[in-house]
């Protein structure tokens, strides 16, 4: 299909070389980054939206495109071409089905397009086509119709861990991370060569397999390293597979000591979560473990570096195939909650290997999500205090104050949060990467007889869009999923966007 860039050339790219390639693509465009990326087709007034596979199947492609274009003023489809699983909403569920779509069940996911096996010759992951929608090919079904309407079609390649994929994709478990006790997990390892070749193969299969239909790629993987996982989510520490241990040895990091450190940290946080008394205090005990096992942070950095090297590699490979097609990344929302994860998601570093970034700045759902994170901190690093007791300090560390802890879940975060996060991103990428913040439209929150978490209103949508554009956003991605959005809120987005664009022209 492509005589110059056949797949064998790509699989030979080491991560380091690919990273240099990514930087090289960037450096060729300097010294005038402010003039725009001349070879990248950046659409003016970019308005994206994520669309699940089942939405096309349940509502019909034309009907969905009508809603997106006429109600939402959307011009760029982020269609899931790969997902870790899809869950339809239910009429009687805690998150109600909105006024469109069909109720249904959860599926395991996989690819929603046909791919040439030649791109997957060097990986044991070859068979990942999702066939639950009758082999529905989202690229062939949607892209021509989107193009006919003047819309762009982006492949949304979301690689979150999904336990279901261990069951449905042959060999998937073989590439997964290994925990402290030698057990496989549901999360693939970014240092596993088969997984890396699989991710590269998907990028190649999209850009080389559908050169006239795929206009760009949005790539995502909502993952964090073992330290952040323990502090923020109590997920078992990983990865201690042979590939990670070999890479650690190259850096002079002892896997044995890292494991012991993570064991002690896990035990400490378990005791904290169980409210067991601690004579020295939990923070002092935490710090003492870090002093004894600096390998804890070294292992976290090893994990994060491996993840970001992989992203740089994919970017470099995509640019080598189709330099004019935008390739960018979703950044999951917890980087706006966690000071530890925020330190790892460095925009200054990221701007070397992305055409665009979509920071997930979901302000309505951000309230209950932030409250949950503060609650989690009160069971780990800050276990000496209750969330309400350290919320003021936390706000000082992360930015301006939001609602008091006990009101966060019901009030959500303010539109100022969207503005702050957008402004920070825009300033730090310094014009070298487009910033498209994710605008919260019915990102699920919990509502039942006892819990009344913040729900999106049309006015919330209007305020968030103005906040994003006033802070310098280059575009937006209406989020999270079309299938979750009430049409009045989607229409509020479209009406507001048309007003904003009319004022600017
Ligand atoms: Zn590993």
Question: Could you explain the architecture of this structure?
Answer:
By secondary structure, this protein is an alpha/beta fold. Helix content is 46%, strand content 12%. The protein contains 20 helices and 14 strands. The strands form three sheets. It has an eight-stranded parallel beta barrel, surrounded by seven helices. Strands 3-4 form a two-stranded antiparallel sheet. Strands 7-8 form a two-stranded antiparallel ribbon. Helix 2 packs across helix 12, helix 7 runs parallel beside helix 12 and helix 15 packs antiparallel against helix 17. The chain is globular. It starts with 6 loop residues before the first helix and ends with a helix. Bound molecules: zinc ion (ZN). The site of zinc ion (ZN) has 8 residues, from helix 9.
Short description, anyone?
With 505 residues, this protein is an alpha/beta fold. The chain contains 20 helices and 14 strands.
Number of separate helices = 20
In percent, how helical is the residue content?
A: 40-55%
Residue-averaged pLDDT: 92
The profile of the biggest β sheet is: 8 strands, parallel, barrel
Unreliable parts: 1-38
Structural class comes to alpha/beta
Bound molecules: zinc ion
Strand content: 5-15%
- Give the oligomer, counting copies of the same chain as homo and different chains as hetero: single chain
Number of strands: 14
Query: Can you list the strand order of the major beta sheet?
Result: 1-2-6-9-10-11-13-14
Rg over C-alpha atoms, rounded to the nearest angstrom? 22 Å
Overall 3D geometry?
globular
* Terminal residue distance: 42 Å
